[in-house]
Amino acid sequence: MPLSAKQFHKPKSPSGFPSGEFIPRFTPSQGALICGGCVVIDPTLRKVALIHDPSTGINQLPKGRKNIGEDVHAAALRETREETGLHVIPLPLKGLTRATPTAQMLGEPVNDEAFAADSAGEGEDDHDVWEDVDEEGTSTERASGLTGWAHHCEPIGITTYRCEMTLAFKVIFWYAAQADSLQDPRQDAKEPWEQQYELKWVSAQEAPTHMTFEADGQAIEKALADMRRSGYQI
């Protein structure tokens, strides 16, 4: 059942400030770990790439920290190439995103203030924030703050947790990428600590169940859903 704006926006505390999870919290740079990773898919053979660590038995998606001055998407692709040895390229999809569409995508100038207000929930209270999305998730009204009618390379989602080694707040931005599962991976692309990693290709439908971490499986499911939205038979 669609959520209305009144259901979606939590009530404020008596002090007038948002309560609980809606209160902004600051994390200093040394306490934040920004990473990028990819869900690598072979659209032709309908397979997903995963990294297997034989020393621990862990199956996971390729990912890693961004370098200083590096774009997060570029970091995701670089780390994926290093850990898998594959030649991977971005996979543009029509996934729903709250990133502001460009004027070229809209065919008209973008009203940044209107989109910012809508995303922040400052529009009319009786507006259903999901009423502009049909059963398949296709955007039918572009003023909803959701973009899903055009191909783009925005993140398909994020994973957040506390890093055990550094205790930093870790944020992983996931992107969709594509590669040929029949190619021979480069062994010289790996960093020394990545040498034990083994590349495995599994069927797209079974891939989520192969992952050690549930969040990785959810990232795969989201990438596959976005592919189906984009017309792929997978």
TrEMBL record:
In terms of Pfam families, this protein maps to: NUDIX
List the source organism: Metarhizium robertsii (strain ARSEF 23 / ATCC MYA-3075)
Provide the GO MF annotations for this entry.
Answer: bis(5'-nucleosyl)-tetraphosphatase (asymmetrical) activity
In the record, biological process GO terms are: AMP biosynthetic process; ATP biosynthetic process
Provide this UniProt record's keywords sorted from A to Z: Hydrolase
The name on file for this protein is NUDIX hydrolase domain protein
Region spans: Disordered: 1-21
Which InterPro entries does this chain map to? NUDIX_hydrolase-like_dom_sf, NUDIX_hydrolase_CS, NUDIX_hydrolase_dom, Nudix_hydrolase_domain
